Amino acid sequence: MFSIRINGKCQVKTLTIIVLLMAGANSFAGEVLCNGIQLPDVWPPNQQTIVFNLHPGLINKSAFEHMQQLKKSSTSERYDIGLAAIFSYLNMSREQCKAKIETFLSLSEQYDIPIVVQLDGEQWWQGRPDLWNWWNPAGAGYNPENRKNVEWTGWGPEHAIKIAWRNWGRQIRVLPPPNFMSPDYRKACHDEMRIMVPLVMDWYKKLPPEKKHLFIGIKLGWESAIGVNSFYYPNGNDLKDKPASNDPKTGLKANEVPGRGVKAIGYASVKTADIAHSGELLESDLAEVVARHLNDLCYLASRMKVPRDKLFTHVAGWKKEELLYDAALNKYSCPGFSFYKYAKDPADDKGAGRVIKKSDAPHWAAVEWLSGGDKQAWKNAIDRTLADPKCRYMCIYNYRPVKDNKAAMEAIQEKIGVKKR
Description:
The chain is built from eleven helices and twelve strands. By secondary structure, the protein is of the alpha/beta class.
């Protein structure tokens, strides 16, 4: 049972965009006009790519040379391999971010390795204390008004949080998550995207026809959600100046939405979005905020000439078939999902399946994925993930541990047609 707030302002309208696909064909016949760009007929519509996610510190020749070596022996025309990297544009200076992206693009072209450019303004934003520092007068960017740019545990700025927790294998302290609907936060994301997206698209535009395949796409969002990857323990602000060893370790209870077993946050974004101003915080409220957040980013990218078949969102589900899955849908992009629990067979993830069935986008993607086991287990999981030809790519997290996993690499090489000597 879901509690859904009925509010005319919250209704999402869907526009069907017709994209010319020739399923099973080896090439497009002619050119397709998409978002104002004339696209060359160079990418086979049935090609799928196994992508490895690179840590930003590993964007170097070594990783690309490794991929190039693997590709040399590949005999598959359908399956390819590539690399992805995350660029957290609020976590570094603009020039640093530009330089990292330019290096990534240059290496892709040099080594002929397809890539996914992942732009993040959600998980890491240390570089913008002028947005989040509302509590430390001695710190950079201090402004009490920054309470409006972070999340709250109640319906007013007096409930602003100054700390949060994340568990990606181990629990760590992180900054308070952004209020996704804050005008200042949205402007900050837009300002950086207006630099980074054209940088990528100009590179793509200048690629010769025989290299257009190198650009798989841009991914926006990073498991976009509220109160999951940056969650808040009760009375968390009181813990900030105490040793982390004193922090609770109970973690999340994923099925208990919207609070997830800790202290519910999301009031700031829900109120700023004019979805609700009082009463109970609902699961549908948080899902609606995330949907608006991703829709806004994807709309902006589409205005900067990113075609729909090269733009992907990224959400995840922690509760079975939760409403958050639907936030991956918008008319500008293709939906993307994380698969860990369901990596063995994404078809078992009924929430993702519900959205894929609804979607009129040309593709979807397993934008964050990791399996395990022996070679056969990896092979089965990869086969099942790519069983749907609309799955444009799967992104394995992460390159560094998987490249040394013999079972995984043998399964991947077999998938792309590398013959044993």
